[in-house]
Design brief:
The protein is α/β, with parallel strands linked by helices. The chain is 43% helix and 11% strand.
Length: 290
């Protein structure tokens, strides 16, 4: 299986900027979507596919591949955009987002799209599925790792903590769970709906190795990957503090961004801002190469 591409932080910022623009492309096609959480986690998803995961877009079901599960399945546009950029399917498929019979539904469907490992979005189940996959990979001695992204708004679901217990009990060192902590959910601030802080201490109390990062900072995300121990005997939780709707200044840190139904003018303004971000990221990347 080919190695991951191994882009550096500046290259990953370019890819993440491309992915954000592809999210807007899907919104133009479908008319609405869960933009806020998509943009808060998209830097992590980008770094996973372009740096951490051992995957081959031409052989998406290779038995030795690493697995990624988006537990917060309503953030599917983040995964769709990055899968397209990584070459799992043509970018033209994104234009069908939200349409009748589309491969790209509001939540990911493993039966319709290459690169999707499980149907997710019934919140609270992704961690348990990931733990099962990690245990299976260990028993099969494939060397595969399993990564998942949870949302802070889904943590009150009890199945998360059953999964956390199972992963610690079976000493699944090949499991890494990112928690996208953007502090907002559809009903308002998570601390008001159902506060779950301190998240790091909760995972630590279950027997996990825990680290906290800025989840929109590529350098910090890469530090997590570089610090993973192949011989680890406990699972790793990464509490990633992020900004809801990161990249679109008028929507950042707003409840309204959770599910966005933009006008054409709003889409145009957002696209202009994100294109400027892409141009800046490209200039930075070129400067690093020189």
């Amino acid at each position: 299986m080919p190695d991951e591409r191994g882009l550096d932080a500046s290259g990953l910022r370019v890819e993440a900027a491309h992915a954000r623009l592809l999210v807007l492309r899907m919104l133009r096609a479908g008319g609405s979507g869960h933009l806020g959480g998509v943009l808060s986690c998209i830097d992590i998803v980008t770094a996973l596919y372009f740096r951490a995961l051992r995957v081959d877009p031409t052989h998406p079901e290779a038995p030795t591949r690493d697995r990624f599960l988006l537990s917060a399945g309503h953030k599917a546009m983040a995964q769709y955009a990055v899968l397209a950029r990584r070459g799992f399917f043509p970018e033209s498929w994104l234009d069908s987002y939200g349409g009748l019979g589309s491969r790209l539904a509001g939540h990911p469907d493993m039966h319709k799209l290459p690169g999707v490992e499980a149907n997710t979005g019934a919140l609270g189940h992704g961690l348990s599925i990931a733990a099962g996959m990690a245990l299976g990979a260990r028993l099969a001695t494939t060397g595969a790792r399993v990564f998942t992204i949870l949302g802070d708004g889904e943590l009150p679901e009890g199945a998360n903590w059953e999964g956390a217990s199972i992963a610690a009990h079976h000493r699944l060192g090949n499991l890494v769970a990112f928690v996208d902590v953007n502090d907002l959910q559809i009903s308002g601030p998570t601390r008001e709906v159902m506060g779950m802080e301190p998240i790091d201490d909760k995972f630590r109390s279950f027997g996990w190795n825990v680290t906290t990062i800025d989840g929109n900072d590529m350098a910090q995300i890469l530090d997590v990957f570089d610090g993973l121990n192949p011989a680890a005997t406990v699972p790793t939780a990464v509490v990633a503090r992020t900004v809801k709707a990161k990249g679109i200044s008028t929507l950042e840190n707003t409840v309204a961004s959770h599910y966005w139904k933009p006008s054409e003018a709003e889409l145009d303004a957002a696209e202009e801002e994100l294109r400027a971000t892409l141009d800046a990221a490209r200039r930075e990347s070129l400067a690093v190469v020189r």
